[in-house]
Amino acid sequence: MERTVKLLLVVFVLCLLEAECSPQITAGQSTTTLEQRVTALEREIGGLQTQNQLLVDCVTNMSSDQSDTVKCARKIVTAGISYGRNVMFSAQLTHTLSRVAVKQGIVFDSPVTNVGDCYSGHTGVFTCCKAGTYVFYWSIYTTGTHYVQTELMKNTSSIAINRSGDANNYSTGTMMVLLHLNFGDEVWIRVKSRNPATSNIYADKSSSFTGFLLQ
To answer: Which residues form the C1q domain (predicted)?
Structure first.
């Protein structure tokens, strides 16, 4: 236990040292430069406050599992790196998903943009690395003879539903959501229902998942 706490403290101290090494404001700098530095310092302070809270949470909920300690350390470092950055991503599906199942997660495997590195093209999950209000948008492309409902999930809760198909030709359904997220919240898309059971979701750069930090 003592060794684990020391490890987390070392991670936090390294983050503090990194912040202290930032360039200092000098008397000869312009007003614009000073304003930029003040904004940057405010972001650094916000990041350190977030890291401090994560450290407290890690120590409070400490377990003997070393993997939990590693996860905590990663969260602390990630919070410092991501705080103050713009966050946005857009990812596309590159292959057909055949015979999709109910509650199947949809992995948009090809990130076109991933500023902040908070979206995973391997899991299809966006993990919030900066708390705030986000806009999410997704589109699903299927055939007219198929009917596919997908839903945007926040952690374990369904937030919104997108319907596509049930037309004479190929059909694309779209949906947009405005959502507040806290650090560590996870957002992804999954299949809610489909008819028939042989329904497919097609790629062709028409099935995609996009999100960005609004404020």
So the answer is: 82-215
Q: Where are the domains of the chain?
A: 30-82, 88-213
pLDDT at 10: 47
**Domain covering 88-213 in this structure, CATH number:** 2.60.120.40
**Residue showing tokens 């302070």:** 45
Sign of CA dihedral 104, 140, 135, 108: positive
- What is the per-residue burial (b if ≥16 Cβ within 10 Å, else e) of 110-149? eeeebebebbbbeebbbbbbbbeebebbbbbbbbebbbbb
Q: What pTM was estimated for this model as a whole?
A: 0.63
Three-point CA angle 62, 63, 69, nearest 5°: 75
Nearest to 79 by CA among 58, 52, 109: 52
